[in-house]
Design brief:
This protein is α+β, with helices and mostly antiparallel strands. The chain is built from three helices and five strands; from the N terminus they run βααββαββ. It has a five-stranded antiparallel beta sheet, with helices on one face. Strand 2 and strand 3 form a beta hairpin. The radius of gyration is 14 Å and the shape is globular.
Length: about 140
């Protein structure tokens, strides 16, 4: 890969959107011959997209997949300014483990204020994570 790749996907506020976002990321990364990171990227995407679907009001979310030599960065923008909470592990609770998975699997993750106008603008945020990729891509 001699230049960065960038892909976006609008996710309407539907229960199918997290799965479609996951499949989109997995398909793009496999097509770019990044099979080693595709499953982890798909799982983390599903968790972040699910949080956007469940907790962010508005018109949905926007996924941005950026692929560069050495790194994949995925950001899900939504219309809720509130930052996600990394909850303590609790085996009795059926939900609330998604961000803990991202924290354990991604090389880094965080949030950034603001979102594209269609999904929140100044009232929104982006939740991002990165994964290292082999630096010897062709």
């Amino acid at each position: 890969m001699d230049r960065p790749h960038s892909y976006t996907l609008y996710c309407p506020p539907l229960e199918t959107s997290p799965r479609i976002a996951r499949d989109f990321v997995q398909s793009a990364l496999r097509r770019l011959r990044l099979e080693d990171v595709a499953p982890v990227a798909a799982l983390c995407t599903s968790e972040v997209a699910t949080n956007a679907y469940l907790h962010a009001p508005g018109l949905g979310s926007l996924l941005w997949l950026a692929v560069e030599v050495g790194e994949v960065r995925i950001t899900v923008y939504d219309g809720n300014r509130d930052e996600p909470v990394l909850r303590p592990t609790c085996v009795e609770r059926e939900s609330g483990r998604g961000l803990r998975l991202v924290d354990g699997l991604a090389d880094a993750w965080g949030t950034s204020p603001g979102a594209p106008l269609g999904v929140g603008g100044r009232e929104g945020k982006g939740v991002w994570f990165t994964l290292a990729t082999p630096s010897c891509l062709s």
